[in-house]
Every structure is written in structure tokens, then in C-alpha cells.
TrEMBL record:
Domain GHMP kinase C-terminal: 324-383
GHMP kinase N-terminal domain sequence ranges: 142-215
Gene Ontology biological process terms from the UniProt entry: galactose metabolic process
Ranges where the Galactokinase N-terminal domain occurs: 22-69
Family: Belongs to the GHMP kinase family. GalK subfamily.
EC nos: 2.7.1.6
GO cellular component: cytosol
UniProt KW keywords: ATP-binding, Carbohydrate metabolism, Cytoplasm, Galactose metabolism, Kinase, Magnesium, Metal-binding, Nucleotide-binding, Transferase
NCBIfam families referenced in this protein's UniProt entry, alphabetically: gal_kin
Name listed for the protein in its UniProt record: Galactokinase
Top class in the EC scheme: transferase
Length: 418
């Protein structure tokens, strides 16, 4: 069927069983445990993370499930349903300050990068039994050994739902438990970010891992990317009869790398010319002065960040005071700002958003880095079927690639399942 709506609970149980049995078939033994961690969607707060601003993502009901068993030697083996074969390395290769260029490559850089990053945060990967001095708090007991692991994921790759953070968070929690480390979840989020930045080489912020580790059912994670304070905010979608529809345009992020770097550079330039450490230090009252100081284009980039931070704060306040049915105009304004000021939308995203707005959504916006990827629409449940038909028709009329649409709900963050 093409109607891939939200994954029923029953499938979660089947997934756990399949991961367990595949692990046993691969390695000829039972796993010590099963851990899972979700992908995430960003409700509002786009490109604000690297400007030390606010974001409001939530963990979704699409997850990576990981089975892991410690070994009594220093061999690490890991495999995914997603890729052929088993990747094998030695813990010695990860017990280094900086990873050599050829140590980790391909998909396994995500999970094995986390094992390396745990070492950077104080876990003793050397086998000598001593803690690395002067790094983050977290008990180190010398129980660090090799392991066998297998994972499967229901988070679609590259749809802006952070399949990467789902992997990082699942193994971060699994190794934290198995190696008897005592990192808290906020530290594990930083571990995942370090893996993604240094082992994978993607210059991403802390949002994805925070959502995946701190998420709660029917709630969002309100994250201050300057202080890294995180607060859980009730969404109340179900009680209000609302659902969040993901509209993946299936447009590849053609300019995403260059575009992302260029937007970051504009934000840095804006902060420098306004003489602040980051754009977080500006608010809407500073915009008239910014308009005098900055070039027309840099001003619009800055205006997006400053107003987007305000929209995140307004969304949190509105959720608390009035409930989710009242946040639609903030989502709409966020999209307009990304389209006109930050200029990271594409025709497919604009059509998805406009069609949603015209067909019953209470609000809609593109989500993620831009230049392709997905849009989200907050929609009364009963309007979802007609909205999907309208979007399919709007895309086909314009000869766009058919979009993939599915509903997500806000789910719990990473957990030990078994
Ligand atoms: P996303 O927006 O989905 O996080 P990224 O490019 O950040 O996209 O991460 C996608 C990468 O994560 C994939 O190219 C792959 O290397 C890895 N990945 C995602 N899902 C899996 C999986 N189930 N098994 C192995 N690797 C995966
Ligand atoms: Mg990612």
C-alpha cells in the first residue's frame, strides 16, 4: 500500500522481535539487551540552532532498534538491515584523540563514531582501566570491552527526520548502559553531536540528539541552544483532534551543503557586523538598527533568525495557554520567513505548504535545512485524507515527483526496551 500512515504499535513489537532474532542469527548468541531511539521532526525554529537560538522539535514514532551484546575481547562488530555485511574494527582504533581519515567510513561512522565520542567524554576505551582526566563527568569503571551490535530503523533516511540521530542515540544509550557509564541524557546528546561533527563530518547542532534522547509522548522538547537547557512542553495534538502530516517532497537536497554553509556564513557576518557573539543576542527591537548596518541580503537572513526565535517562544507560550489549535499562524509565518528572508525553500515545498493551508491545515511550513526535504502540516484528523489527495493532485499537475506523506505522533525518547 502507498498509504504509509503512522506506524501502529503492533509493528513496534514485531520490529523488536525481528532485531532480536536477526542478531541471534548473525552472531550465534542472544543480545544482552535491546535499545531504541526515535527520529525527530522540528515543529518550529529553523536554522536557529547554530545561532544559539531556540528550537522546538519532537521525537516521532519512527525508531532505530539496536541489539547489543558485550564481548570479552576488544573486537567491535556492527551490522544494519540497511547495508550488506558486518563492519568489524578494534576498540584500539577508537581509543584515540582524533580519528584518522580511514578509520570510520560509510553508515557505520554514525554508531562507531558514538563509541569513539564516549571516549572523548571520559569513557576509558584504552583497556587500561583509568579514566581520561579532565573531561565531562561520567563514571568510568573499566568495563569497556568490544561488542556485537545489529540495528534496524523505521526512520526514513534523508527526509529531514534525523535517521542519523536515531542511530546515534540508540547506541549512545546502549553503550552507556552496557559499559556502565553514567552519563546523563544531555551529555549523551553531546556525544552524538560530537560523533556526527567529527566522525561523520557533518557540522550539525545539538537539536536532533536532544529530541531523540529527551522526547516524551505527546510533547515537544523546547531547547535553548545557548544554555542547552531543555524543557518538555505538552503538545496536546491528540486531545485537540490534530495530527502532524509529513510531506516529503522527495526532492534531493541539491544545493543543501553549499546553501547551508552560505546561510551560516551570512549569520556569522550579521553577528559580527552587529557586534554580538551570535544572533541570539539580538531581538526584534534590534531589527531597525540591523537594517541600517547590514546589506539588504544579510539583513533578511538576520531577520529570519531573530523573528524565528521569537516565533519559537510564542509557540511555546501559545501551546501552554491556548493549546495546539492556536499555533497555526506561527507555523505559516515561519514558512514565509524561510521562503522570503532566508530563501531556503523550493517550489515543491511552497506548493506542499500552500496546498495544505488551502485544504484544512491549521498551519504548515517547510522543516529542516531546506533546498528540498519535507514540509509539515498540522491538520484536523478528519481533513487528512482529502488533504493528501489535494497535495498529490497539486504535485502531479506541476509534474513534480510524487511526494511521500505520512502522519507522525510525538513519542518517547530513547529507551532500553528489553
Ligand atoms: P537524516 O536527515 O535522515 O538524518 P543524514 O544524512 O543525516 O540524514 O543521515 C543519513 C545517514 O545515516 C545514511 O546515509 C546512513 O549512513 C545512516 N543511516 C540512516 N539510517 C540507517 C540505517 N537504518 N542503517 C544504517 N545506517 C543508517
Ligand atoms: Mg541527520
Amino acid at each position: 500500500t502507498t498509504d504509509n500512515t503512522s506506524m501502529p504499535e503492533a509493528d513496534d513489537a514485531a520490529l523488536l522481535e525481528r532485531v532480536q532474532s536477526t542478531f541471534s542469527a548473525l552472531y550465534g548468541k542472544s543480545p544482552d539487551g535491546l535499545w531504541s531511539a526515535p527520529g525527530r521532526v522540528n515543529l518550529i525554529g529553523e536554522h536557529t540552532d547554530y545561532n544559539e537560538g531556540f528550537v522546538l522539535p519532537f521525537a516521532i514514532n519512527r525508531r532505530t532498534v539496536l541489539a547489543l551484546a558485550l564481548r570479552d575481547d576488544r573486537v567491535i562488530r556492527i551490522s544494519s538491515a540497511f547495508a550488506e555485511g558486518v563492519v568489524e574494527i578494534n576498540l584500539d582504533d577508537l581509543a584515540v584523540e582524533e580519528l584518522g581519515p580511514d578509520v570510520l567510513s560509510g553508515w557505520s561512522a554514525y554508531p562507531l563514531g558514538v563509541a569513539w565520542a564516549l571516549g572523548r567524554f571520559g569513557a576509558d576505551l584504552s583497556g587500561a582501566g583509568d579514566a581520561v582526566d579532565g573531561l565531562a563527568a561520567g563514571a568510568v569503571t573499566g568495563s569497556v570491552t568490544g561488542f556485537d551490535a545489529y540495528l534496524e530503523s523505521t526512520v526514513p533516511v534523508g527526509a529531514g527526520l534525523s535517521s542519523s540521530a536515531a542511530i546515534e542515540s540508540s547506541i549512545a544509550l546502549a553503550l552507556n548502559d552496557s559499559w556502565r557509564l553514567e552519563f546523563d541524557r544531555q551529555t549523551l546528546a553531546k556525544v552524538g553531536q560530537l560523533a556526527e561533527n567529527k566522525a561523520v563530518g557533518a557540522p550539525t547542532g545539538i537539536m536532533d540528539q536532544s529530541a531523540s534522547l529527551l522526547g516524551r509522548r505527546d510533547a515537544a522538547v523546547f531547547l535553548d541552544c545557548r544554555s542547552l537547557d531543555a524543557e518538555v512542553v505538552d503538545l496536546g495534538f491528540a486531545a485537540a483532534g490534530l495530527e502532524l502530516l509529513i510531506i516529503d517532497t522527495n526532492v534531493a537536497h541539491a544545493h543543501s551543503t553549499g546553501g547551508y554553509a552560505a546561510r551560516r556564513a551570512s549569520c556569522e557576518e550579521g553577528a559580527r557586523l552587529m557586534d554580538v557573539p551570535s544572533l541570539r543576542y539580538l531581538d526584534v527591537d534590534d531589527l531597525p538598527r540591523a537594517q541600517e548596518v547590514l546589506s539588504e541580503e544579510t539583513f533578511r537572513r538576520v531577520r529570519h533568525i531573530v523573528t524565528e526565535n521569537q516565533r519559537v517562544l510564542d509557540t511555546v507560550r501559545t501551546l501552554r495557554l491556548e493549546g495546539p489549535a492556536a499555533i497555526g499562524s506561527l507555523l505559516d509565518a515561519s514558512h514565509a520567513s524561510m521562503r522570503d528572508d532566508f530563501e531556503i525553500s523550493v517550489a515543491e515545498l511552497d506548493v506542499a505548504v500552500e496546498t495544505a493551508q488551502a485544504n484544512g491545515a491549521i498551519g504548515a511550513r517547510m522543516t529542516g535545512g531546506g533546498f528540498g526535504g519535507a514540509a509539515i502540516a498540522l491538520v484536523p484528523s478528519e481533513s487528512i485524507p482529502a488533504l493528501k489527495i489535494a497535495i498529490t493532485a497539486a504535485f502531479s499537475e506541476r509534474n513534480f515527483t510524487a511526494p511521500t506523506m505520512f502522519v507522525v505522533s510525538a513519542a518517547d525518547g530513547a529507551v532500553r526496551e528489553v
